[in-house]
Amino acid sequence: MSLAVVTDVIWRFSADDGWAIASHIALTTLTSLFPFLIFMTALAGFFGSAQLAENAATLLFDVWPAQVAGPISTEIHNVLTVPRSGIVTVGAALAVYFSSSGVEAFRVGLNRAYGVREKRPWWLTRLESIVVVFIGAIASLMLAFLVVLAPLLWSALLAWVPRLAAVENLVTVARYSLVSVTLGFALLIAHKWLPAERRTVAQVLPGIALTFVASIIFSVAFGHYLQHFARNYASTYGGLASVMIALVFLYTMATIFVIGGELNAALIRWHGVRAVPRPELSNNVTRLPPPKSRFPRT
Q1: 22 by DSSP, 3-state: which?
Q2: What is the domain range of residue 75?
Q3: Angle at 122 between CA 120 and CA 127, to 5 degrees
Q4: How far, in whole angstroms, is CA 132 from its chain's centroid?
Q5: SS3 call for 196
Q6: Residue 296 within any structural domain of the chain
Q7: Which residues are bridge partners to 277 per DSSP?
Q8: Which of 32, 48, 139, 193 has the smallest CB count inside 10 Å?
Q9: CB within 8 A of 204, min separation 6: which ones?
Q10: What pLDDT shows up at residue 258?
Q11: b/e string for 4-42 if b means 16 or more Cβ within 10 A?
């Protein structure tokens, strides 16, 4: 069973243009990142704490390899320190719209992996993506607020119970654990709600687990690689080296994400379980003709 599933995942990934889809996701994510952070800054300013946006961005890039996040973080800091007049502006509206393109790219990748074609009007799916951007921005700011508040609470707790200083390292562990849980929850939302069909949590968990574990392994390995061979990018791409490093990183992460969707789809096919169509989408979903099955007939 395991070998058959792995073979099917690899074959379907290529048949579904997985490499091209991953490239699309990577480039769209990079181009959507700055508009999203700009909108998040405006939103944080609306709530009276623009510094929260920079804290949220720092928290996001903490899980990236330092060689990838460093150059981008510098530019993001320059962008986020520009004063924003408010969230109800043409610039903010455009930032939200372009940020939603990243969500649309993930939707395309998951629909292709799960073998369905979206037939809802483009404006409806775009509106859903904009809602996701709003929720993502608010959730990021709330997470940043908790991370900022945690050290203050910890200091107050130490004043009452000094012996807790011996386990202070657990605060750092808790911080990264919180980020990890947030990323896992984001993957769950993506697999359950972005595609044109609804799947159970059990059906999407294998792909989420693969994406999560493989992403961590790749991030660590890529960081070690860049420590010794980053000069190869500089000698090849010159001033564009930092951009190319970010693109390679995002491209590989997007590939892992798409493979996670393909794994879920392969396991669903193996068990012969049909996904449950969304009631509101039942008339708007076209199932793509599947390639010839790679599973042995019984």
Answers
A1: helix
A2: 2-287
A3: 100
A4: 12
A5: coil
A6: no
A7: 197
A8: 48
A9: 188, 191, 192, 264
A10: 97
A11: ebeebbebbbeebebeebbbbbbbbbbebbbbbbbbbbb
Task: Give the span between the Cα atoms of 124 and 110, in whole angstroms.
Answer: 17
Task: Measure the CA angle with vertex 18, ends 12 and 20; round to 5°.
Answer: 150
Cα 272 from Cα 58, distance rounded (Å): 43
pTM above 0.70, yes or no: yes
Rounded Cα distance, 61 and 223, in Å: 13
User: Each residue of 239-291: pLDDT tens digit?
Assistant: 788 888 899 999 999 999 999 999 999 999 988 755 555 555 545 555 555 55
Q: Kindly report the number of other CB atoms within 10 A of residue 46's CB atom.
A: 14
**Is residue 297 assigned to a domain?**
no
The whole-angstrom separation of Cα 64 and Cα 195 is 27
Is residue 293 a part of any domain in this protein? no
- 86: alpha, beta or left, given left = phi > 0 and alpha = psi -120 to 50? left
Tokens of 137: 């921005």
d(CA 109, CA 31): 17
Which residue matches tokens 């069973």? 1
DSSP state of 228: H
Question: Are 295 and 267 contacting, i.e. CB atoms less than 8 angstroms apart?
Answer: no
Q: Which of 137, 140, 132, 135 is nearest to 55 (CA)?
A: 140
**192 CB burial (10 A radius; 0-12, 13-18, 19+):** middle
Residue 175 burial (10 A CB sphere; 0-12, 13-18, 19+): middle
CA–CA dist 247, 109 (Å, integer): 17
State the total domains in the chain.
1
Assigned domain for 295 exists: no
Tokens for 138?
A: 């608010």
d(CA 19, CA 187): 20
